[in-house]
Amino acid sequence: MKLSKLASEIAESPTLALNEEARLLRERGEPVIHLGIGEPKNKTPIAAILTSAAKLTSGEVKYTPADGTLSLKKAIIRYTEENYDRLVAPENVIVTNGAKQSLFNIFYSILNPQDEVIILAPYWVSYPEIVKMCMGRPVIVTPENGTFTPRFEDIERAVTSYTRAILVNSPNNPSGVVYPPELIEKLVDFCERKGIYLICDDIYHKLVFDRKEAAPAYRFTKRDVEDSHIIVVNGVAKVYGMTGFRVGWVVAPRQLVRVMTNVTAQTTSGVSPVSQSAAEGALNGLQNVVEALRLQIQNNREILLQEMKTFNGARLIVPDGTFYALPDLRAFSNNSVELSKFLLKKALVVTVPGKEFGMEGHIRLSISGSVKDVTEGVARIKWALDPTSPNEIYIGDKKMIRDWL
What we know:
The chain has 2 domains: 153 residues, Aspartate Aminotransferase, domain 1 (Alpha-Beta Complex); 239 residues, Type I PLP-dependent aspartate aminotransferase-like (Major domain) (Aspartate Aminotransferase, domain 2, 3-Layer(aba) Sandwich), CATH 3.40.640.10. It has 13 helices and 14 strands. The mean pLDDT is 95.
């Protein structure tokens, strides 16, 4: 069978592959703990359920405009004004099938073959692959050892005449780090001087701890949306825990939104009206559901930090946001892929290799589940790796003895 070279070079999603492996183990009755999936365990907000149910019961579930329904756009406009202090027009907004499609359509719309996109490590696994799918070249900027925050000087040095965009994700998946406002300010000024797009993946922007704030890029420019080089990506998946509804959006200059609309119209067409109604309900409904989720995850983070204190050899930069942590386990192995396989085999814990995020020797842990998942999951990892931890542990109803250290 002949396949395209471009498609054949796209890497398999490691998170989806791990989810499938965990599902198969669970079907066999194995007591797997899943610390790999980036998905909150909360129920869908009631406002989203009611508005989507109303759309279903109306029987009017038909095609929607390629750029989104006007009523959802109005909710996004209000959300943008309240959270970014920017008043935008409906023509500045496009609704997409999840934030992942937002990013794909942005890159498809701005990149020519071999154009470059600066990606800051650690990065979400799909960023480089999406850029390559749009025939661009991902250029990775890695922070100094011992930190997850890249230096502005290193970013500036990576820019060439082929650079079309810099992609920023703060709070950051997979590290949980929130970039300092000073870095965002420098990037805004630099991109506007150079005519480079600053793409802000803000999907976790409200999931921050310790009174931290993920400073929005719009704060550091006096230009309006039409003249700015800032592009903002957001959605309902993470802060509302509505991953399955697949609703994201982009706020950008009108010309870019028009091109992205054409791309959507010729590929997926518009987002399901049921999903758009659910997103509208979430944005217009009571926002205490967001704070409840944030507090739950913050509590899980505190438990993780307590558990990690007794993990000899592991090093963890405290996450300031999201529901992830990226511990450094190079004291045990420099091969994170093999390490994740080992932890799944021996401890029945799903993790994601740091190599997939541009951070070899680390593993990503998701703390979006239950307190029990966090405590027992970390306990199993410690048992498998740390020779100072107890030699015996119960995994499910089986007593396990460590015989490899």
